[in-house]
Structure of alpha-L-fucosidase:
Amino acid sequence: MVIRSLLISALLLACKAPWRTAAWDPTWESLDSRPLPAWYDEAKFGIFIHWGVFSVPAFDTAEWFWWVWKGGYDGPVKPSFQKFVEESEVKNFAYQDYAHRFTAQLWNPDEWAKIFKRAGAQYVVLTSKHHEGFCNWDSRNLHHTWNWNAMDVGPRRDLVGDLAKAVKNTTSAHTNQKLHFGLYHSLFEWFNPLYIEDMKNNFTTHNFAKHKLLYFA
């Protein structure tokens, strides 16, 4: 329930869409009553892209690699994950070390947009930040994202901004509809020290929400 409450509060701060016509309360019932944008509700085909540091090992559960490898908070380490890391990386390897190899070397957003267009997609959604906390955009001016974003390490470029620009200049094939661009943004971060601290305090403290979630909002 604590995580759900954090998500509700942060989502409400982000719900300043132009089609909003009513005030929303910090409850699931209120959030569930929000209407979907017409273009999304009527779209027949869209593309969802999961891309991040987890794309480097690209092993088994992909974007959940870090969580499964470390056994979550209490679970045992999955042997196949530990074996994979031991056989492919140096001793004392840390998940953060993958970020240096997340270079997006063949990244060509304009080509991606053309492929989406030819495929007939009506919307494209990119993961801007998954539960690992790595930001795929230029977040250098945000608190607690130093050296864990696509501008400071890895690609050294704004992946979100690149694709947004390419997609917004493209219309979907066979229709006159604009190819809509959206983002998936995870508010939760598995191993963020602030969240771990709040959890150890039985959530009597709310430093993750105050200093990370609300700062983003």
The chain has nine helices and three strands. Residues 1-20 have pLDDT under 50 and may be disordered.
